[in-house]
Structures are given as structure tokens and as C-alpha cells.
Design goal:
CATH architecture of the largest domain: Up-down Bundle
Structural class: alpha/beta
Strand content: 5-15%
CATH class of the largest domain: Mainly Alpha
Helix content: 40-55%
Shape: globular
Radius of gyration: 20 Å
Strand order of the largest sheet: 3-10-7-6-4-5
Distance between the termini: 47 Å
Order of helices and strands: EEEHEHHEHEHEEEEHHHHHHHHHH
Number of domains: 2
């Protein structure tokens, strides 16, 4: 454990980002948690991955004789609590999450509630939750809630496995990283409003996550170099939140737009990362920052930022932004400082559409 003046924080004991990492996963796990081969381990994954990751899962279970597989059906608080109950009732000692955001959020929170070490083995890179101290879980209906928990004990990213992920999921990871541009601005606004201070180290790490992706020359989403850089950016984003003790280094007004869209317009099928990227283009304009910088990066990675192509009409766009601040009333952002009229939002929607 490391301590600064503002917050106590933890860092992962091991972080492995390499090609073929899953082929030596048991070796990595043994280094991360000594004696794991004698411990009761639960391997949480989802049905769709059982066949895709069959060889890796079978080898893991051979080397971990006291392990068992637990299938996660949905990303919900109830599912996480069911898993936590199973962990406690069966005296499980380690949980390993193998999968995408749904599996990782449920496994992370269940491990936190069950008070056992959690190892994260992502199969895609759609957001920075793989290294963050929070889990986003479904609650009543389609509503979701961000819950505090512990950062993973270990993170193992197999570049070869992640390269098989759909391009849309990787673009979502880019969007979640890009959003730090506006989130960091909003964090400073909040600190000034509360006469508080920004954690300098956390701010620096979040900014590093952003710039490492922005100034990366490799734009092919299916290159090993890009996968490594995106992984590093997402891990840094998660660590910045852990050090700050909150999500301010990675979440601002652009995330409020995303929350509002998810809560009020469930018919819109857009990933979290793409929604916050779209939100960042608007927040950036409201903040008076250089929006061309963001547009250049998003275009370089082939990301479609035309709201209409995602089914977001002018009416939905305006309604979503007008309700954005209400999704987190405790969060001070640029939305608290601008006069966000319907006319201004219609103009912003037109600007987004005309620049595609």
C-alpha cells in the first residue's frame, strides 16, 4: 500500500502485456499469487467465450486442480452478488475474470465483496475498467450504477487474444481514452469551484494515458503495437482513478452525456466509449478547447462521429444534453458554467453533422 496526503491507494501486484501471455498464464499467476496452485480458484467467464478460450481455460484448470468455471450471464448487481455469495459459501480464495467488460466488472465486484484477490484477463479493450477501482453494474431495469471496489491484484493482457476482438470494441476503448481530454478540464473546474486541489500525480498519469494514444504513430487497430499502446493507456486511466480516489481523472461532462443517453434513450445502440467520444466533441467546444485535436485522432482511427449514423436525432441529442447534468448532480463540470440552451445545442448538432 502506498499513501499520499490525499488518498490511500493500491497498485496491481503484477501487470503483464505481451504476446502469448495466455500460453504461460499459469506461470504468471503463480508469480502473482504464490501457492495459487493449492488454492480454491473460481474462473469467471461468459458462455460465448467457453469455446473461443477453450484451450486456455482447460490448461488453466489442469494446472489449478482446485479451480472451477463460473459462467456470467449478465452485467448486473444481482449477478455480482450471486457470485459473491457463491465465493463466500464455497470458500473460494482467488477469482480470475476472463472476458470483456461485462465479465470483468461482475468478477471484480464479486471479488471485492468476497474479500479475495482478483486477477483480470481481458479478451477485449473497450474501456478503462480493467484497471479501475470501480465496477459499472446494471440495477433496476436498464439503469446502471458505478460502484467502488478494489483495483485488480493482477492484470494479464495477451496481445494475440485481444487482436481478435471486434474493431468496434477497440474503437470504444479509444473513445474512453480520448474523453480524458475534457474530463481533466472539468476536474480543474470542479477543484476551483470547491476551492480544492487536483491530485497532481493522478492528473499527470491520466494525461499520459491520453497523450500516449494521441501521439501514437501506429493507426492500425489490428497491429500488435497499437494493442499494447491502447492497453497501456487504459491501464493508466484506471490507475489515475485509483490514485485520485475517484473517477474525476477519467470522467467529466462527456460521461454525463453518456449516462443521460443510457438512462433516457435506451433504444440507442452505441457503445460506452463511442458515446463518451461523441460527448467529448461537444464538451470540448463548450470548454473552448481545441476540438480539432480530438477530431484528428478520431478520424485517424476511423471512428464514425456522425450522431445520426448512431440513431441520435437532433431531438434526442438536445434532450440528452439538457438532462446530462442531472445524472450526477454532485459533479461540477462545464455544464454548470454555460447557458446550455436548446438553440445552442441545435447549433452544436449541426456542427457535428456538417464536419463528417
Amino acid at each position: 500500500m502506498t499513501t499520499n496526503m490525499m488518498n490511500q491507494f493500491h497498485l496491481p501486484y503484477c501487470l503483464v502485456i505481451e504476446e502469448g501471455a495466455c500460453e504461460r498464464l499459469n506461470e504468471i499467476l503463480a508469480d502473482c499469487i504464490p501457492g495459487i496452485e493449492q488454492k480454491k480458484v473460481i474462473i469467471a467467464t461468459e458462455p460465448a467465450l467457453v469455446s473461443i478460450m477453450k484451450d486456455y481455460l482447460e490448461e488453466m484448470k489442469r494446472d489449478l486442480p482446485c479451480s472451477e468455471t463460473y459462467l456470467i450471464e449478465e452485467n448486473s448487481f444481482d449477478e455480482a452478488m450471486e457470485l459473491a455469495k457463491y465465493i463466500c459459501m464455497n470458500d473460494c480464495e482467488v477469482i480470475i475474470g476472463v472476458g470483456g467488460g461485462k465479465v470483468l466488472d461482475v468478477a471484480k465486484y464479486a471479488g471485492f465483496v468476497g474479500k479475495i484477490p482478483y486477477i483480470c484477463v481481458p479478451t477485449t479493450l473497450s474501456n478503462d475498467s480493467l484497471a479501475s477501482p470501480v465496477s459499472v453494474l446494471g440495477t433496476v431495469g436498464d439503469a446502471r450504477k458505478t460502484l467502488k471496489c478494489k483495483i485488480p491484484t493482477g492484470i494479464v493482457v495477451d496481445v494475440d487474444v485481444v487482436m481478435g476482438a471486434p474493431v468496434a470494441q477497440l474503437q470504444s476503448g479509444i473513445g474512453d481514452t480520448i474523453s480524458k481530454y475534457t474530463a481533466l478540464y472539468d476536474w480543474k473546474l470542479d477543484a476551483a469551484h470547491r476551492k480544492d486541489r487536483v491530485d497532481d500525480f493522478s492528473y499527470l498519469i491520466s494525461d499520459m494515458a491520453l497523450t500516449s494514444l494521441c501521439y501514437n504513430e501506429e493507426k492500425s487497430l489490428k497491429s500488435k503495437e497499437f494493442i499494447k499502446i491502447l492497453t497501456q493507456s487504459l491501464v493508466l486511466g484506471g490507475l489515475a482513478m485509483e490514485i485520485a480516489g475517484n473517477s474525476r481523472p477519467s470522467s467529466g461532462s462527456e460521461h454525463l452525456f453518456c449516462h443521460s443517453l443510457e438512462e433516457n434513450h435506451k433504444e440507442i445502440q452505441i457503445s460506452h466509449g463511442m458515446a463518451v467520444a461523441l460527448g467529448s466533441l461537444v464538451s470540448c467546444r463548450l470548454q473552448g478547447q481545441d476540438v480539432e485535436r480530438l477530431e484528428h485522432i478520431l478520424k485517424a482511427y476511423g471512428m464514425d462521429m456522425d450522431p445520426m449514423n448512431w440513431g441520435i436525432t437532433e431531438e434526442i441529442f438536445v434532450d440528452t444534453w439538457l438532462g446530462a447534468a442531472d445524472t450526477r448532480k454532485d459533479r461540477y463540470t462545464i455544464l454548470n458554467e454555460v447557458d446550455l440552451t436548446r438553440e445552442r445545442l441545435v447549433q452544436l448538432y449541426g456542427e457535428l453533422r456538417s464536419e463528417r
